[in-house]
Amino acid sequence: MPRKDIKQAVRIQDIAQEAGVSSATVSYALCGTRGVSADTRKRILRIANSLGYIPNRQAAALRARRSMILGFLVTDIKNPFFAEIVCGIESTAAARGYRLMLCVTGDDPRDEARHLQMLLEHGVDGLILVPIARSQDGTYPNTSLLRAFHRRRTPVIAVVDAIKDHPTARITTSVYEGTRLVAEHLIALGHRRIAYLSQPFHRIQKFGRHAAYHDALNHAGIPFDPELMVEAGLTPDDAYEKTGQLLDSGIRFTAAMYPNDYMAVGGLRMLRERGLRVPDDVSVTGFDDVEWARFCEVPLTTARFPARALGEMAVRELTERLSRHAPPEDEAFCQISVSPTLVVRRSTGPVAGELGA
Amino acid sequence: MPRKDIKQAVRIQDIAQEAGVSSATVSYALCGTRGVSADTRKRILRIANSLGYIPNRQAAALRARRSMILGFLVTDIKNPFFAEIVCGIESTAAARGYRLMLCVTGDDPRDEARHLQMLLEHGVDGLILVPIARSQDGTYPNTSLLRAFHRRRTPVIAVVDAIKDHPTARITTSVYEGTRLVAEHLIALGHRRIAYLSQPFHRIQKFGRHAAYHDALNHAGIPFDPELMVEAGLTPDDAYEKTGQLLDSGIRFTAAMYPNDYMAVGGLRMLRERGLRVPDDVSVTGFDDVEWARFCEVPLTTARFPARALGEMAVRELTERLSRHAPPEDEAFCQISVSPTLVVRRSTGPVAGELGA
DNA sequence: CTGAAAGCGCTTACAG
DNA sequence: CTGAAAGCGCTTACAG
Q1: Does the beta carbon of B109 lie under 8 angstroms from any beta carbon of chain A?
Q2: Contact call for residues B191 and B349 (beta carbons, < 8 A)
Q3: Is A2 part of any domain?
Q4: How many domains, chain B?
Q5: Is A135 in the same domain as A251?
Q6: Are strands B126-129 and B302-304 parallel, antiparallel or unpaired?
Q7: Residue A307's closest chain B neighbor by CA?
Q8: Same domain, B283 and B240
């Protein structure tokens, strides 16, 4: 028994009836997919408006095979660098009529798999992902799911990091360049014992951060000391911990590099708690140049990447490809690497003494 | 002409054929909506799996009138407080089988309207929103859109802020309590000239921040000085600016309150640039207790609200109501106000001298 | 426990 | 410029 008080949603059919035309005509008038006489169109629009018509996107999606939804899969939204990328993605997508389905993986491959599966089920028109989740062996664990996107002709674009051993479109940040820029800045200031509070090692790319660090030292004739290379988790809390352990170990260093600003603030805090002055006692560097980097305790020297623009570019590439009905052959339709700029602030300075020992 | 190389998506119908049963049985087996003999079920699941079946949620949504999507409308995702709420929402939603459609309004009522409209069109099953967008006259501008959600029996829950003059469910942070806690902490430290770098005034609630500030002063017998109440935008940059202008004006104050941590870091920076020590010269307070608050230049005294839990609660209320098929009568099915805890860190201290003049 | 069939609200060839 | 009709892939009464 249908309840009288539940107002049924108005459909295209209702407008058609009211306007005395077919539902096809209403659809064409509303979407502009085909010419409709000016009179009829105006009448239809007026009626749609007066009836409070709200198109049903599910139905449209089912029939037209496009959902007008983009998926974004990210490891951690609390990292302000990713938050800014989301901003860029959301606003650009909205301007083009797309909505954003947001998935947070917490850097867990199984979570990423579950989310990719759901994104497939919801029929997103395109996928942007930060594919940081890697297995311990360094390979990317979810290639089979990505292939499912490919089979459906759903374009996929990796952002920030590329996907290991899988040729997809990507807009990556040149971590090699950035790390090298930062390292050489420190070396130029006279630092020779530079600690690197790095990411989990299995996530490091072949020609990535570690390579840049090594090359910079090598180029300056500074021997590499493995003791200075410390593995840390991707949060300020872990950077804080690991910095403390490094100080406890008695290993000498005059500068500390962090793989992102988010972690660098954790490091800064530990140094302060141990009574060390930045940059007088230790120079500190971040990576990314998030909004907060210049508001830090000591404004951070860092490598700047245009986070917001990264998100905007990703959406542009995706939507352009969607509107082109591009041939599915070139999975890697976009291969961009964004270069950083070195931003020197107060957290770095010339060497004074050496820390530890 | 259908291309041979395009592999058609496998449908329930294909599984049914392979298994020699009806598509209804496949649907029941997959969703568990009705009993299916153990044998048949097992066979169906095996076939679905081997065929790489991916359910089409658009079709299911259209028929069953539930999209399994929740909408979240937020003013600014770069504010870490909101980023943390998103975390709570996303993980809780995912655990219950819902995806998240994220909309960022930038505190613009027109943008909010556009996004609400799209959320309606996409048929979200529930809506969580931070309804900060208000018109200049202090009323909430998008009530008519919210009524459209109500007509569809789509539950709506406001988070952080309530919706002015519109009875919806809500999980708000008690800004009155928080502000009062912070103000009285400063008063107890001997401060009498407390600047308040407030939000845009038209966004202030009746029994909100300003009332708490006034009451705290009043209670302590301190006269209110309107010069100390400064209107600022909701970003660190604007807080930075306005703090500078306040210093330039020569108005004396020994403490500065900010309406959130995000803005407080902007204030801290300006104070540092002017050579003022915190808390020796000026005490500073934030609001929210975001992750970064304790990593600040000077760790912030602030009022802590459980951001992540807020998001989790909102999703729980929403999904519980959805599964209950609750009567639509009580639009305000949830009326929770979360109380803060005062977190005292290094940014506040006893009065020394007075600033300015 | 199972099946045949209607229908969710659109879009889009097909025909005029 | 317009209409009649098929169909997207599901779910769900209805009937047995």
Answers
A1: no
A2: no
A3: no
A4: 3
A5: no
A6: unpaired
A7: B78
A8: yes
